[in-house]
Amino acid sequence: MMHVRTVFVVAAVGLMGQGASAQQSPAPAASRPAAIRSPEVHADHRVTFRIAAPKASEVSVSGEFEVGAPPHAMQKDAQGVWSVTIGPFPPELYEYDFKVDGVQMLDPRNPAIKYNRGPAAISSLLDIPASAPRVFDMRPVPHGKVDIRYYDSKTTGLTRRIHVYTPPGYEKMSARLPVLYLLHGADGEDSVWTSLGRMNVILDNLMAERKVQPMVVVMPNGYAYGWDSGMAADRQQADFEKDMFADLIPWVQANYRVATDRKQRALAGLSRGGGQTLTVGLRHLDAFSRIGVFSAGNNNPAETFKDVSANAAKVNGQLDLLWMAAGNDDFALPGAKRFDEFLSANKITHSFKTTPGEHTWIIWRQYLNDFAPLLWDAKREVGSR
Prior knowledge:
Strand order of the largest sheet: 11-12-14-13-15-16-17-18
Strand content: 15-25%
Low-confidence stretches: 1-23, 381-385
Largest sheet: 8 strands, mixed
Order of helices and strands: HEEEEEEEEEEEEEHHEHEHEHHHEHEH
């Protein structure tokens, strides 16, 4: 989740009648400008970025491949095309942006973009492939399905959208499956765990390797109301939590074959969603037995979670898993460490690890890959409740 950007997109659409198109022929190939390729990934993992901006005086590119580094200046050729070749970079999926005369913008030659719930934090995407499949690369294995569904929320008075993953062969299964409720971060929405997190691909691969039990994954919108609603943050959180228990979970149980036993229900999230996971999950252990927190914590847990520490023995008795992780260069690391220390001081069983990386999807995809196999025994029979 990179820094907030303002993006200016100008689109021009030309309409031509059928008769006119029959009378006009395409310009000769020799007179058409050459197509601009950007980004171009080379065999050695260097990358060339290009953009046509003949009237610009200064153009640069920056991205997650070098977070915190100064932008790379680009050079203009005689045709007004700016370019630069940088790297090599490790195989990964990165966000990046151009800056043209001070204006942050997408790469107009690249259709792959990161989008979010509001008008901020939209970026172009660069995929540098690896020689061997990464945890989020599609492989020749059985694939699950991601449904886009809608449910009526009495809490908000709105029809809300969710993404729901069902595992390979779900249609032929009769047993009820464990269910993971998976939350996104700030400015995200319900599609981001599949579009950027590639959670469906990660779970398909893990199931093919028999590392995880078949499960349903529910990805709701972590905001109760739209980005332009003007609703206060505390109301957003309170109504999201109320909706989860009054509307979302009952709807999922009525429409999918999921277990109703808390032992087979988990909650996890990243960044803001990780904070929601702690706030909701630790206070609703009657509903969730397993919790995952990616890049999140709390700066004053002794005060904020004093009700949890006061009932530490009960929390330990109900929790089957509390797993936390954050990057070494993650701005959420201090809060995550404080929460780890708070849990340890109150003797609440949990695990916490740090990994190389910053506050980006690069580590969150890996965290899901590490966390999912810990949820339920892959060799155990699926519950029938």
